[in-house]
Amino acid sequence: MDIGRRNFLRGASLTADGRKAVVRLRAPLGPSPPWMSMLVEQDNCNSCDQACIPACEQDIIRIHPGGHSLAGYPWLDFSVAGCTFCGKCAAACPLDHAQDDPAPVLGGIHIDQARCLSWNGVFCMSCVSVCRYRAMTLDKQRRLVVTVENCNGCGACVSACPVGVLTVHGSCGT
Questions:
Q1: pLDDT averaged over every residue in the chain
Q2: For 86, what's the count of Cα atoms within 13 Å in the CB-facing half-sphere?
Q3: 43, 62, 79, 114: most buried by Cβ count inside 10 Å?
């Protein structure tokens, strides 16, 4: 029985909170590690020994917990640090990777402007100072702006943000 049917029979999907919980159980918790998004989509990680986790020097690779629709699959937790695209996670993975390809784009940054300090009159450059790709800049009013062409979704700005208003939305559906 799938999660949707089970929750429907329990009545969980009849409330707004219940529907939000179901959505959380189906949505990825973060983007897939670099070079791995195609492998996750192909259902290859479920019976893995998860060698990518200790291989990550940034310690940002996590596994979706049991009960989640993606249980057992890796995701990147940018609340700790950003991805350096070192490729060690892909090298540790027992599956075949096209690791010679350039670093993939993990996604783009979304700013919650209602809570962003720079959008609320406070001069803040926390995320701008850590962005190696010059994707984060300030406009003439000193508000945060993302240059989409420069952003690869590395997530370094997410952990640097003092109020937690930045999230990576990627091609993996996050």
A1: 80
A2: 13
A3: 62
Could you state, in order of their start, the residue ranges of all structural domains in the chain? 1-27, 31-104, 108-169
Give buried/exposed letters for 12-39 (b at 16+ CB in 10 A, else e).
Answer: bbeeeeeeeebeebeebbbbbbbbbbeb
Phi, psi of 156 (to 5 degrees): -60, -35
What is the C-alpha separation between 109 and 165, in angstroms, rounded? 10
pLDDT of residue 33: 83
Structure pTM? Answer: 0.75
Which pLDDT tens digit goes with each residue over 79-130? 989 999 888 888 888 776 655 566 678 888 999 999 999 999 999 999 999 9
CB contact set of 52 (below 8 Å; sequence gap of 6+): 33, 36, 61, 74, 89, 90, 92, 93
Q: How many Å apart are CA 109 and CA 118, to the nearest integer?
A: 15
Q: Alpha carbon of 151 to those of 36, 62, 70, 96: distances in Å?
A: 19, 22, 26, 27
117, 160 in Cβ contact below 8 A?
A: no
CA-based diameter of the chain, in Å? 54
Please tell me the distance from the alpha carbon of residue 169 to that of residue 105, in angstroms, as a whole number: 11
Contact between residue 138 and residue 131 where contact means Cβ atoms under 8 Å apart: no
Task: Give the whole-angstrom CA distance, residue 133 versus residue 30.
Answer: 20
